[in-house]
Design brief:
Four copies of one chain form a homotetramer. Chain A has 380 residues and is of the alpha/beta class. Chain A folds into two domains: 242 residues, TIM Barrel; 103 residues, Sandwich (Immunoglobulin-like), CATH 2.60.40. Chain A is built from nine helices and 21 strands. In chain A, the strands form two sheets. The first copy, chain A, has a 16-stranded mixed beta sheet that branches. In chain A, α3 runs parallel beside α4. The N terminus of chain A is likely disordered.
């Protein structure tokens, strides 16, 4: 007669336990944003939920999803004060991080301990990451909570500031001002899920706060992003000196970020500019233009987003189309033509352009230039 | 000063609580298998897990996934005896069903209460569905467990019989024989996850057991199936008299099923034959063949799987290619030609063929025929 | 010693001539726009080019592409007066149709003889279809050409009227007025390639001209549309009494058309309205609303385009979201809620909505309603 | 009154001539096969047809398609003796190359002048490329034709040798032997279209002939390959010293090729081995294994084909799975484990494997090894 086997023994016996998902291929799709000179680009999603608050997945899923999606670092940030599943799931604040970390480490992902401080508006929701003890944040006054997070070394950012405001128009309340003045507020989500917040974008520029973008995902990620939907999740690109939690933390405090939101990047021009330049390459060995002839310039874009360019058609020594798209991971053509029968000689022509989907300011594209080495020949 | 708000009040206040996934479109992709004459085809996944045993998702996710995947009915069947997350999650056996049901009902899905009876091999794992009280199955002797399930009106099937057997070669142990003889075993998984089991297939044919196919999914379903992977999850097609749990249960006991496994269907010829015939249509208004000329016959296949046909090239009054594929949801061409200069008159030609991916017996295709109405004209 | 074999003999010997493309599967993707009551919907592209003018493919390719793309009827309309390949290709105006027709007929496609009358603007380019003799259109004065086409029974439409106009703003010149007054102008392309022309749209409404939409394709079609680009080619939906050239011609003269342009349909409300209604279905067996509760209404859209709906949130007895998308070929959810605690009884609620991508007037959506059968129950 | 405008003037006037395809984006998808040490990998399709023989497209299309498909060099090789469209198209043998070349050059593609010498079997069809004068090949005796091609400096290869043979079993006829002995036969198509020929593969190895693989495309390429079909066209990878026609020709005579056929590469091990090694990278900064623990090794594959690996599970100091797939352009996981409790120290472990889809011999995979730098630690 067979007896009930203790679960732990059973688990040991179940080396070949049939779990269909584990037989499906585990594959990582990288997100080839370039490194910037002297810095490493880390792809981060620092706001996500599990069954330990109101998310719908076990913490390990967040690491597995992140690895597959090409991320480098994540923070699981369950609500401290809002745990609707607590009739069934423990309220131990340390558990999500403790559970996700081994899975993440087996995949080479950085994981950051964090939590979401959850109040009605104002002051709304904050994420605190790089925490040492989440449970210590269970205090009544939100100022005490934020101070505690700060004293633990936490990096604190304001989540989705437009939430519960009329028309999602973000409002800077006295509560934010107070926390900001005390030096406890370090960043704002300019992107939360599928929402880009131009007001928050301007605040980050004006108040020297770090621009953050996160998924705030509750469901399995593929229910909202990925191949099913033809989109990539939002994330924060962090430009760090090393691939470590410390370097990531320092980069966040130093505001070295840009935010990915669908096919847009939001950030300071000083980061968007090299990111753009490092990801494109002119493939023509030489661009030889005779008189007013046309030539097709081939531009490779290795970044995982398209670049939408607008040219001032006669802003340089070359005639240009009004627009061009540099498709992600592809080679595009830009037809340029000579503007003079008599031009001659070889020189670099800086072709001014706007990259309209790189937002250096709220809803305003990055001004930059394509540098083409051209050999001009007079018309015969 | 603001005080900590009780979670229940907070939940009420959070009508617009930002959950990115819920802003992404919720879309159902139907699986247009046809109904059979007098019966309704129900697409069922009757073996899946949640955080209440060793699955990685909250129960509601299983309903949401199933609705999106085009299913009609599901059973969440968490292990009774194997609950590795019990340090964090309650072991109340009633909870998965109680949690998944309201979400499923809001989407019009049928949900069946069930559980997985979990022993080492033999006797291995059984699923019992249509249970009234899962907790009552917590007994030592597996015979007592199965009897209790049976006495609750349960439909009981043997899961993945090849598991833990050398080379996944299924073995019919004394334990199965005993339960089978007592009338407590009603079906076997001929498909579990990505594995098709021809031995189990033959057993079902020989012993008059119901053929079952299920995902046994633990991870979020899109980690293993769906657009990310280019596959559809396995499932059991049940041919029921109505869209109700009772009719579903009766159809299972009556063995009215076929099993989908990637691009294959496994079942009895009496179900595969009408399923095939109901899903194809010849589009040519008339097939007019003059002498030995060729004509392109257009065949629409509305089923969500391709049909792979093999013809005996001269098995009828028509010349045929060796093979043809009727692509899922598309119109295919089959070139047929006359074999005689003198044929004349209009008649239905039955073109014998094998549909090699409809398995009427282990790894053997369905023998059927295409019925073409042809008007023969003598060569001039 | 082997001698040079005449090409015709060689062709006969080459039954198995290796042509890779013919071994790849030939598959038709249907475009499931519904038929309208009493009418058959024909999907037509009536403007396309081959190597016999400035197109880049052999005429048979246009039939093969059209069949694969789910079309019912095509007209190859090579330029009469512009044949840049004439150093290499014959200028016999009858050839494109004579070559494309047998291929089209083997696939069950209707083919219409036509040509493009090619002048600078004004009067620009006209297509004349249902011609008997294209060569007869080689005359100097464009009025003579158009009259000849008309006298052959031709249906004549003005192509891409915005071409060569500043900012593609179409201008109605005296030349058009003259031809229009003589009754020789029957339609206008409101869509040519990827360009929708709202001015031409308004002209069609005002002057009772037939709305046309065509690809005007020169390259192989997959270079511009189809799976490579994620788009479908533009086309004219013609609502005919039968699937014959005569019925197609009569429908064109009767202005029974709607034009597909990416995810939009342009046409008269009297055609767009039934097209929309015939392609959607409410799947809930009953919509039961208790008090102010919410219910998810499932809407299947069988058409090959999404429908973008805008609701007036409280325009009926039901609360509604601001917007909903009914995805092509999918089932979508619309959350409706009761607005009263005391409503009771079963009745059909007409929910007013705008379908913003069905253009009943220039850039203006179709006003219609979803009809929901609701059973109201008072709140308990 | 307006007069008929000469076509040449009209062409000049038609700067904005509406050609839909040219408004769709022209995008190149690169095929990131790596360069080999000291050599440049050129992706070549050296067998294709146009309307100048029995192809269905204008010659320029072949250049446009090739650029979009990521190729570096093409040869249009119309049949000399089989021109079924000659009632409508000129038989001037120089035209296809003269027409395709300017378009190809504007896109940076190399184009090679060639033709297909077309006889029944034997001797069947030969391609001759790097010709100076195609018309000079119009001679009766096939030996004269081949000699003439050879004397022009031509590289001559036998096309699809299995064509017209029973079951596509290639036969080496006296005609081939004669030409081979005279030194006029330099290569064989081991891949033509979708057909791989293992007999031809063995001949190339035995007789020191160059392995060729080409599309032999007649239809627009997207009708047979590409995103519509989920495949890439077959091609010859040529390992040249420079990106010039001369270097390409020399590499062909030196037999520096490998052939792509769907997800397989056929070639000599000396080329397949570095191609494989140059396209994979182990991403773990260090592989640290403690006792018999497991570690996930991350392998990036930058090549555009998957690699299918088979391991001998205990063939090294590491335990391995039976199989692994390194997906194209992705990062895959291979779980390796220690086999000893006492292993220690850091060393490179060569893990033997077969890459089953790299054919170093007919239908036989490449034997190679993954080199992993492992730091072993004794179990505690």
């Amino acid at each position: 007669m067979r007896h009930l086997i203790p679960a732990t023994l059973l688990a040991l016996a179940l080396g070949g336990f049939p779990q269909t998902a584990s037989t499906a291929q585990r594959v990582r799709s990288e997100l080839p944003f370039p490194d910037l000179p002297g810095l490493i680009t880390l792809r981060c999603d620092l706001h996500m939920h599990t069954v330990f608050s109101d998310g719908k997945v076990w913490p390990t899923v967040r690491a597995e999803e992140a690895w597959r999606d090409g991320l480098d670092a994540i923070a699981v940030t369950d609500h401290i004060e809002y745990q609707p599943f607590k009739a069934d799931v423990t309220t131990n604040d340390a558990r999500p991080y403790d559970l996700v970390r081994p899975h993440a480490e087996s995949l080479g992902l950085l994981t950051i301990r964090g939590a979401e401080i959850t109040r009605g508006e104002p002051p709304g929701h904050w994420n605190a990451i790089f925490l040492k003890n989440v449970a210590a944040l269970r205090q009544n006054d939100h100022r005490d909570v934020v101070r505690t997070a700060f004293e633990q070394g936490g990096f604190i950012f304001w989540n989705h500031p437009g939430w519960q405001q009329p028309n999602w128009q973000s409002v800077w309340y006295a509560e934010q001002q107070e926390v900001f003045e005390r030096g406890w507020l370090h960043g704002i989500e300019v992107v939360n899920g599928s929402t880009y917040d131009p007001i928050a974008h301007q605040w980050c520029l004006d108040k020297k706060l770090t621009m953050m973008g996160n998924s705030d995902i509750h469901d399995p990620i593929d229910m909202a992003y990925g191949p099913v939907h033809g989109t990539v999740r939002p994330m924060t690109l962090v430009f760090a000196t090393a691939r470590t939690p410390d370097a990531l933390r320092q980069a966040l405090f130093d505001r070295r970020t840009a935010v990915l939101s669908e096919n847009r990047l939001i950030g300071e021009a000083k980061y968007l500019e090299p990111l753009f330049q490092q990801s494109i390459a002119i493939l023509n060995p030489v661009i030889r233009i005779k008189g007013r002839n046309s030539v097709l310039v081939q531009v490779r874009n290795t970044a995982p987003i398209d670049y939408e360019l607008v040219f001032a058609p006669k802003s340089s020594d070359l005639g240009l189309p009004g627009r061009a798209t540099l498709a992600a991971g592809k080679v595009a053509l830009i037809q340029v033509r000579g503007l003079s029968d008599r031009a001659s000689g070889r020189r670099v022509v800086a072709v001014p352009c706007q990259v309209t989907n790189l937002f250096a300011a709220p809803n305003a594209g990055l001004s930059t230039a394509l540098r083409l080495e051209v050999e001009f020949q007079p018309a015969s």
